[in-house]
Amino acid sequence: MPYSIGLEAAATAFLSAGFATQFTLAVVVFLTILLVTSTFQRDAPDVPTSLPCYSIFSIIPFFRRRYDFLNWGFHATGQSIFQFQLLRNTVVVVSGESARQAFFTARGLDLTEGFKILSGAIPMVRGVTSDLQTKRIALIHRRLAAVQRNTPLNDLIPIILEDSRRMMETWGASGTFDPFDKIYELVFQTTVRSLSCAEISDDAALVSRLKTLYDRLDTGTTPATVLLPWLPTPAMIKKVWATKEIYDIVTQAIKSREESGISRNDSLQHLLDSGDEKLVIVGFIMGLIIAGARATGTTASWVITFLGGHPEWRVKAASEVKSLIESYSQSSMAADSLSSQLAAIPLEVWETKVPVLDAIIKETTRVAQPHTAMRRNLGPPLYIDNKIIPTGAYVVYPFSDVHLDPELYPDPWRFNPGRPEPKNTTFGYVGWGGGKTLCLGTRLAKIELKVITAMFVLGFEHRIVDKLGNTATSLPTPNWNDILMCRPQNGCSIKYARSSIPL
Ligand code: HEM
């Protein structure tokens, strides 16, 4: 029969082809099956409207241009809730006040499971990260709460200040930098300091290596690494290696500490003294740096960017910090270094007596935090705005729905820390989460942000400049399609010069 001969020939050709050809063909066949099956889907009335495109065409924009893609979805379906397929996973996108309320409070919606598949920054490496997510996560969260109690947090302030001083000294008396490089680098240092140990954070070269590895985890997250994590793509292999190298750095630091027999005042010591198993300690350090460094670094970079473009808020922030120094520092401004004067301000004051810094941080996390919250429905099926979310489905809520809503925040893209809070709405601001999922690193992140901002606005003068070095006429705008840092599309340049106060 001609057909069977044709098939046989094709099979022989397939089997004798090289691995690359076999692999490509297998992927093409797999995607074709998905495409054909998705064509025949029909929606029941309580099923959210599906996107008018095939599954595979949703994948790349969901990962590469998420803000545009989700907005297009609302527009194309004409609905406030719609769904699409990411391979075999159903993803329901919700918006609006009642959906937001359900999203943040529904019992079955689980953050860890949602994050695991849809974010995929950390690959699952057997014996390194695979067991962590499920079994030990609650313990890691308890330890995170413990290292943010008053005493350890208070002890951390002068250390963060010293790290900031040391790194700011390397910037010289004046110059130009991109805050999304330099400020992020500084925050990476202070976050590693806060969450790990002296063995790592005292070693600038090691911190720099860690940063490269974490960048590799973040930027190496491609649609393929998330959706087909078992595929040995070059990006996936790089991620697995980076995870392994981070693991080695952390375990080496634990070993050195244990062998030294010296007790230090840091997070690692706290974990060791609590008698935690090594996997929990490694999970704490590896996982929380991922959760914390990028978010805090993004916010700090944007705070400095916004203050560089809004001198009136820069002045307000600087005078708030100056008056705290006057109240708490023992010596006069000129005599002592800025870092040691700031170290005299107690934790409680940083937390409760800085309304200007608080307003700046809040406004920055509103307008420049491109977060899409992700959950998985662990069951039973639930309804959001009369639309069904089946067990096992993923649900996502883009923060842009609330934070860039012109009804709640008039002229929403404008940075204005003085704007009034939106009234009569539930979860009108979710910059640190809402309902049953609140950020567990808020205390630490806010202290880092305040201390670094205080050092920068008093230690330097700065402004946003254009490519020629002149004061910029148009200010950088947050790019919500950049899910990592919200980095402005046309870059950002800050011109700075040291003030007369010694760092
Ligand atoms: C400016 C800095 C930060 C911002 C704006 C931020 C924001 C958030 C938000 C919005 C959520 C909730 C996500 C959701 O509902 O999908 C969250 C969760 C979380 N954050 Fe942060 N975060 C920051 C820094 C940190 C730091 C420094 C740490 C760790 C030290 C941290 C640890 C966590 C953890 C563990 C969760 C998950 C909570 C859970 O599983 O219920 N965050 N964060």
Please tell me about this protein's structure:
The chain has helices at about 1-15, 20-40, 55-65, 65-75, 95-105, 110-120, 130-145, 150-170, 180-195, 200, 205-220, 225, 235-260, 265-275, 280-310, 310-330, 340-345, 345-350, 355-365, 400-405, 440-460; strands at about 50, 80-85, 90-95, 110, 175, 370-375, 380-385, 385-390, 395-400, 435, 435-440, 460-465, 495-500. The protein is an alpha+beta fold and about 500 residues long. It has a six-stranded mixed β-sheet, sandwiched between helices. Strands 5-13-12 form a three-stranded antiparallel β-sheet. It has a two-stranded antiparallel sheet with strand order 7-8.
List the helices and strands and how they pair.
Elements (H helix, E strand, L loop, with lengths): L1 H15 L2 H21 L9 E2 L4 H10 L1 H12 L4 E5 L2 E5 L3 H9 L3 E2 H8 L13 H16 L2 H20 L4 E4 L1 H17 L2 H4 L2 H16 L3 H5 L6 H27 L6 H7 L4 H32 L1 H18 L9 H6 L3 H6 L2 H13 L4 E6 L4 E3 L2 E3 L4 E5 L1 H4 L29 E2 L2 E2 L3 H18 E6 L27 E6 L5
The structure holds protoporphyrin IX containing FE.
What Rg, in angstroms, do the CA atoms define? 25 Å
Number of helices: 21
Work out the strand percent: 5-15%
Residue runs with pLDDT of under 50 for 5 or more positions: 1-15, 25-41
Fraction of residues in helix: 55-70%
Termini gap:
85 Å
User: How do the strands of the widest beta sheet line up side by side?
Assistant: 1-2-3-9-6-4
Just give the CATH class of the largest domain.
Mainly Alpha
Overall shape: globular
Bound molecules: protoporphyrin IX containing FE
CATH architecture annotation of the largest domain: Orthogonal Bundle
Mean pLDDT across all residues, rounded?
88
Based on secondary structure, the structural category is alpha+beta
Q: Give the total of domains.
A: 2
The CATH topology of the largest domain is what? Cytochrome p450
Number of strands: 13
Q: How would you characterize the largest beta sheet? A: 6 strands, mixed
**Could you state the CATH homologous superfamily of the largest domain?**
Cytochrome P450
